[in-house]
Every structure is written in C-alpha cells, then in structure tokens.
Amino acid sequence: MRSFLFAPADSDRKLEKALTSGADAVIVDLEDSVGPDRKAVARQCAAAFLQKTVHLAQRPRLIVRINSLPSGLADADLDAVAASGPDAILLPKADGAASVLHLDAKLTAREAMHGLADGHIEIFALGTETAGALFRLGSYGDAGPRLAGLTWGAEDLSADLGAEANRDANGDFLEPYRLARALCLMGAVAARVQPIDTVYVEFRNEAGLRREAEEARRDGFTGKMAIHPAQVPIINDVFTPTQAAVARAATIIAAFEAAPAAGVVGIDGVMYDQPHLKRAQQLLARAKAAGVA
Description:
Largest sheet: 8 strands, parallel, barrel
Number of helices: 11
Low-confidence stretches: none
Number of strands: 10
C-alpha cells in the first residue's frame, strides 16, 4: 500500500470522499480528529460505514484508528467496529511489541465472538508518539504475525517533549523527529513489516509533499499517510515505481538468473552485487502490487 488517507469517523461526507480518493487505504479515525463529546457518534458512524463498504468488490483497505490503550476508550471502539471485520486497526501511542500483543488479545476475543477468522484484522502501529516509545522501536519483531506495518508521527511526540516546534523554517524535520523517523524505518524493516512515512500537514503545499515523499521513498519507506484527498495522487505517484526503474530492476534480476552462481554481474559497465539484486526484487514486487509490472 502506498497511500493511507485519514478521514474523521464522525463525518459521513469525508468518509465517502475518502472512499473515492484513490487511496490504497482509508483510515477511519476515532482518535485525534474526533472531539471528546463526539466519540460515541463517531463509533456509530464508523460501524455503519464499515458495514456498507467492507464487502464491496472494489474498495481501498479499511483501517480504523482507535483511541490509545491507556485512554480507556479502546475497548468501546473495538466493540463498535470489530463485528464489521475491518482490514486492520491502527494503534496510536503504541509502546513496543507488548502493546501490540495486548491489542492482539483483544482482537482475538472479538474475532471469535463475531465469527471472523483468527488474525483476520491486522494491526498497524504508530510507534513514536511518546519519548519512551522510541526506546522500544526495536521490539516489534516480537509483536506476532498480526502486525503489518509501522509508522511514526511528530505532533504527539513534540507535545510529549514539550518542544516549541518539530520543523525548521524550511519545513524540514528537526533532529529529534529525524531520529524518530529513522528508528521507525529501522524498526519496521527489522520486524519485516511495512515502513510508512508520516503525514505532511501543509496539504496545499504540493511541492513540499512531493519532496518529502521522495525523500521517504529514497530512504526505504514504501508508503505515506495523508490528511487530505488532494495529497493522495502525489503519494501514489511517488511510491509507484517508474517504467524505467521497473525495466532496470528486471534487467538486474535477469542478469543474475542467467548467471546463478555469480555473486556479481556487470551491466552496461556497472557492477551489481547481491544487495542490488535484493533491491531490484523489492522494487519489482512494489511495481506488481501497484499494477505497473
């Protein structure tokens, strides 16, 4: 998945718009975009939206961001949406593998209650929203098979740190948040789950979004979250391999297949070794998932 679009669960209009945005995944948000006095309404809206869309043949993946486990609201959120069988839950303020396993147990009970297959509902974790959580980003390899992806955020982390800002005057992340970003990427790769870049909050700044998405792809992220439908086409474009990149990857793979005993192959005067082969295979897999290979 390349694009993950947030939509507040208490807005039928925004949910419907998200559904037709072209996003690979729609995140039905019960947490930050819903005020405290709207939580109950948001749960009802989320359940109704899931019930009418989850069985559609052509739809994005449906992910629900619940409230955090420490908030005391997560169980009511899960009770409202689990019966509809969303594709995944996004766990905010995740605190390492233990928090994912805690959510896993809650989902297992609800899947059994509603006749869903064990493990039907995957988990994505937002793993950098508190300072303490950064020290547990290396633990997600022990979170179990339900974990599908790891992402990060700077807004809650900056509040936890008591920081005045999380970006500089040029719009680039400051050092504490670049550290969180790097640790999220490494934690996801170490856990063999999808690394997903955070949102770009200036939703009218298309050039800034493209630059940040391209930097994320360059470094190893394979998708990015969005806060506005207008961001989706840019994110999809950036994270869809180009035909030139697909052709180059196919050439590298073919060269190694033609010389299976070789550790290194030469193509057009350039030497390629096993890491290049692995990167080519990964790119081709992403291209196939995006329907361009």
